[in-house]
Amino acid sequence: MQETKKIALITYTPFWQRGSGCQRRIDGLVQLLEECGAELDLLYVEHQKALSGNDIKQIEKEYEFASIYQLKLSHQLLRILKRINNVKSNARYFDRVPDTKVTRQVKSILNEKLYDAVIVEYADLGYVLDNLNCNPVKIVDTHNVLHHHQASFASRKLKGRLEILPEEEANALNRFDVIIAINDEENAVFRKMCPEKNVITLLPWMEVEAVPIEETEKQNVLFLGSGISPNVHGIIEFIDKSWPLVLDKVPKAELIIGGDVGRFVDISRCRNVECLGRIHDVDEFYKSGYITINPVIVGNGLKIKSLEALSKGRICIGYPHSAAGLKAFMGKGLFVADNPQDFATLIVEFLQDKDLCVRKASEALKTAGEVLSPSSCVMPLLDKIGMSL
Questions:
Q1: Would you say 270 and 256 are in contact if contact means Cβ atoms under 8 Å apart?
Q2: Mean pLDDT confidence for 361-369
Q3: What is the pLDDT of residue 89?
């Protein structure tokens, strides 16, 4: 019987809400580590939001954290962050967040509890591990290559939110012993940036479960996304350029949009478009159609919304950007278009052939079962902290 490993998770992301890809990524990792027998503590930095009583209840209900710590940012830093987030600032990304109060709190907890490993979400929180007296395995979950962000946006003549130099990101990552990449392509980038560090790839884990389709004659196309700018840009471009072409061939088709991204869609200008708002039951959303889309063309990392749809037994149609890190699914539920016209053509093909939908949805589910096994999504990490399944 293996020794129980004590692990601290440090994050400012309210992952229990599962409203974004990043949140679902962390949620899946926590579930896997708990199932493997790790003793987990949550160190939550009040950065995006403070924990409410309902948050605490939900966390305690859904996870098995041994302890939950709230780490409060100083009032001065909160004012600085608010100003940076609301007005143009020249502050560098990795220089704008260090907070001695949080660092002291983390140092006190880690030195007292003597964890075997510490997992930090994301690299910009790495400063809290400086000058520790203890020596846990320091792990960073990256989610994406940050310095690629600006180039991705610039390629589409859009303004990105982050301006980060490769050397800045490398300095932040070098604080850690283990770097988690979200796909093999980004793994290679991190290895080149930090050649002396251990770099592993962990796909986001999620349950692979066939969601039954409601028996209906409706020809629905589904999109589920948060309100971040790449999602907003993608769905508006899709509605302007591809959706009218779909309706020319399939006049009764309906575009169903779930999540906060719908707040930015003016449905008064759109035909056959419905925005549902925030989705609390993802399975109920997916029951309404076989066909999902991911029209996002900027950003980096792995498109978790694509992976989620495939893991529910749904077809996903997107651009090459939407298929990053998902090569195993190409032609097996995941289909890629190069332009708005081809995007519409693919949707029409599936809307007009239900048997094809059923067959390819089944292939998506089978592939997801092979790719998203718990062992493949956590084993490389367990090896680094001396655990086994």
A1: no
A2: 94
A3: 41
